[in-house]
Specification:
Layout: E1 7-11, H1 15-26, E2 30-34, H2 43-51, E3 55-57, E4 70-73, H3 82-89, E5 93-96, H4 97-102, E6 108-113, H5 118-131, E7 136-140, H6 146-149, E8 158-162, H7 165-168, E9 178-181, H8 196-204, E10 215-219, H9 223-228, E11 235-240, E12 248-252, E13 255-260, E14 263-269, H10 278-293, H11 298-307, E15 316-321, E16 324-328, H12 335-343, E17 349-353, H13 363-372, E18 373-378, H14 383-390, E19 395-398, H15 402-412, E20 418-421, H16 434-446
Parallel strand pairs: 1-2, 1-4, 2-3, 4-5, 6-8, 6-9, 7-8, 9-10, 10-11, 11-12, 16-20, 17-18, 17-20, 18-19
Antiparallel strand pairs: 12-13, 13-14, 15-16
């Protein structure tokens, strides 16, 4: 991307926006940063913008944004926001931060998307590659903003890049060496006119620029992937928990196999994978495929699978008190995630459920709740909905706060039980974000 002497407006002044502005300046462009948030929320960013003499505005977007040859969008900016609609009307080209960063990246990009599992899989991928001696950077929605690290990545190095549908909305030539689609299920539909096919279409853009020299890794078992993923030009590998794969990963007799052209090149035990749950087994298989595409050594792969302990707020064991486990799954912001969480446990569960509803259909988890859950503690603005649906099948109690739910569960759970926060909802009715919700849960557990 030639940006020399080009005027470029960056929408969003958080980490990605700052990274983009720095990269633009370094590459000879003229950045202008604009954000609608105030100085209190953006205190750290404003300090950087001031100290590094960037041209910027906060507390709202002005017409100055449109005095630009190009607009770069940070991941948190909605694609249907007024500022982007106006820019499109003025025929100003709009690209995402990952589009900008990828155009200056010399290394191999492993781009990972999916409705659920992105963060864990991206983290495992970066960890595993580094454990095998292949230098990998972690970027995207986790680790660093891609624009912060892109210049550091050498030709034979790797970027494990978490990519959301929002970031893919504004790509142009983004072309990862490996594209990974973990799953596609309905989520964030409010950003896509409540149309599942529009949301899926955004995910599919991850491979639209790939060619025969590139690779795509797909979940054979996911209905959304099977329904929507077609017409790719790259080399496909599949992972499946239910069937044998001639090119990809599969499970047989409690072992994981990787096969290429029907030749088995890697075997490990399912028990070698530290992370629990079928969904994490599937995520691990996707990463194994990525590792074998680049011929990483088998013993290094197995050691990494054994030692990777997971990511905060994803089925995170917080503490065990009097043989009761407390598990933080605050990242479970949709029903699909809770389905996977419930399947991960054999122990009786005390489930904390609720928050800001996203049009949830709880029929998807009804049978699992009946089978595994002793009691539900309903919290947040959706507490009544949770109660009204589940009280016919299991005990349900509405609690005013997450702390109250933890205290109540601690009094009722017995040795061998699990208290699980897996809310199936967004967090914004009670918390700043899902991380804040997870932190409050952990503080409540640690104060017991």
């Amino acid at each position: 991307m030639d940006i020399l002497k080009k005027k470029i407006s960056v929408i969003g002044a958080a980490r990605s926006g700052i990274g983009a502005a720095r990269l633009i300046r370094k590459m000879g462009g003229i950045p202008f940063v604009s954000d609608i948030s105030d100085e209190i929320k953006l205190a750290e960013s404003v300090n950087i913008l001031k100290s590094e003499n960037f041209d910027y505005e906060i507390t709202g977007h002005t017409e100055k944004v449109f005095n630009a040859d190009l607009i770069v969008v940070s991941p948190g900016v909605p694609s249907d926001s007024d500022i982007l609609k106006k820019a499109a009307e003025k025929n100003i080209k709009i690209v995402s931060e990952i589009e900008l960063a990828s155009s200056f990246c010399k290394g191999n990009i492993i781009a990972i998307t999916g409705t659920n599992g992105k963060t864990t899989t991206t983290s495992l991928c970066g960890y595993l590659f580094n454990e095998c001696g292949a230098n990998a950077y972690l970027a995207g929605n986790i680790g660093h903003a891609f624009s912060e690290i892109t210049e550091s990545v050498k030709q034979n190095e790797f970027v494990s890049l978490e990519v959301s549908s929002f970031q893919l909305d504004f790509i142009d030539r983004f072309k990862p060496k490996v594209a990974m689609i973990l799953n596609i299920t309905p989520d964030h539909l409010n950003r896509y006119d409540n149309k599942y096919e529009y949301y899926a279409g955004a995910k599919l853009r991850i491979f639209e620029n790939q060619d025969a020299n590139d690779f795509i890794i797909l979940n054979r078992d996911n209905e959304g992937v099977n329904q929507f993923v077609k017409n790719y030009k790259s080399n496909a590998f599949f992972f499946s928990l239910t069937q044998k794969e001639s090119n990809g990963c599969y499970v047989e007799d409690n072992k994981v196999f990787f096969s290429r052209n029907n030749n088995v090149e890697f075997i490990c035990s399912v028990d070698d994978i530290y992370l629990r749950g079928e969904h994490n087994l599937a995520n691990a298989m996707a990463v194994i495929i990525a590792a074998k595409i680049f011929n990483l050594n088998n013993s290094g792969i197995i050691n990494a699978l054994r030692s990777f302990k997971g990511v905060e707020h994803r089925l995170e064991l917080v503490r065990e008190i009097e043989q009761v486990k407390y598990v933080n799954d605050s990242k479970a912001t949709n029903v699909d995630s809770v389905w996977y969480a419930l399947r991960s446990f054999k122990e009786p569960l005390f489930l904390i459920l609720g928050g800001q509803d996203k049009g949830n259909d709880y029929n998807q988890i009804k049978d699992l709740v009946i089978e595994k859950v002793v009691k539900i503690y309903a919290i947040g603005s959706s507490a009544d909905k949770v109660f009204n649906f589940f009280h016919r099948f299991v005990k349900v109690e509405i609690k005013d706060s997450l702390e109250d739910a933890v205290t109540a569960a601690s009094k009722e759970a017995r040795a061998g039980d699990v208290v699980l926060l897996s809310p199936a909802c967004a967090s914004f009715d009670m918390f700043n974000n899902y991380e804040h919700r997870g932190k409050v849960f952990k503080e409540a557990v640690n104060s017991l």
